[in-house]
Amino acid sequence: MSAPLGLGLVLTASPASASAPEKPVTLTLDGAGIKEIRDKALKPPAWKKALAFAMAERGTPYVWGGASASGYDCSGLMLRAYESAGIELPRTAAEQYSAFDRKISWDDLKPGDMVFFSGLGHVGMISRPGYMVHAPHSGDVVKEERLSGWRRQAFAGAVRPDPKGVTAWAAQIKQRRAPAPAMLTASL
């Protein structure tokens, strides 16, 4: 008996009976099936989880001192976003900046980096090149916003809470873009 299992997998087995001994199960994978399994096994890094959290909170009102779904201030949003990814941060923007020794320059910003402005009085997270997600101020909501010239002038520095994740993600992207192994077949 043979049955397709998806991902290029075929399971072949014979029915068990009292008089016949069990036959081994054969599992065959082709190159495309192995690539698909390998790609699905890749785990997203912490910064990607933190960014997904922050982006999902868009539209939540700004609340001074807020750090919950009922409202966030800028550092409260970063605190909860990275907490959801397993990285603990201090509470305030200045403390968050000081918690990391390695600082990131404006020209080296990557998604997931925390960016600080106005003498460390405000923090956001790079969402994609040229944009950040943040909780701006009273009367506004969590939103994604383009990094303007004004933001560049007010830039105080940046940190990367998940440096290993940024490096690992670049390797994962390269692996995902690689073609499937040619004519590879494995039988188990």
General description of the model:
By secondary structure, the chain is α+β, with helices and mostly antiparallel strands. The chain folds into two domains: about 1-40, no CATH class; about 45-165, endopeptidase fold (from Nostoc punctiforme). The protein has six helices and eleven strands. A five-stranded antiparallel beta sheet has the order 9-8-7-6-10. Helix 2 (about 45-55) packs across helix 3. It is elongated. The two termini are about 15 Å apart. About 25% of the residues are buried. Residues about 1-15 have low confidence and may be disordered. Pfam families: NLPC_P60. Belongs to the peptidase C40 family.
What is the topological layout?
Blueprint: E1 2-6, E2 9-12, E3 26-30, H1 31-41, H2 46-56, E4 67-68, E5 71-72, H3 74-84, H4 93-98, E6 114-117, E7 122-128, E8 131-134, E9 143-146, H5 149-154, E10 155-159, H6 163-177, E11 185-187
- CATH class of the largest domain, please? Alpha Beta
Question: Helical stretch count?
Answer: 6
Largest sheet: 5 strands, antiparallel
- CATH H-tier superfamily of the largest domain: endopeptidase domain like (from Nostoc punctiforme)
**Strand content range:** 15-25%
The string of secondary-structure elements, in order, is EEEHHEEHHEEEEHEHE
Give the second-level CATH assignment, the architecture of the largest domain: Alpha-Beta Complex
Would you tell me the structural class of the helices and strands?
alpha+beta
Descriptors:
24% strand, 2 domains, four-stranded antiparallel β-sheet, alpha+beta, endopeptidase fold (from Nostoc punctiforme), 11 strands, elongated, five-stranded antiparallel β-sheet, 6 helices
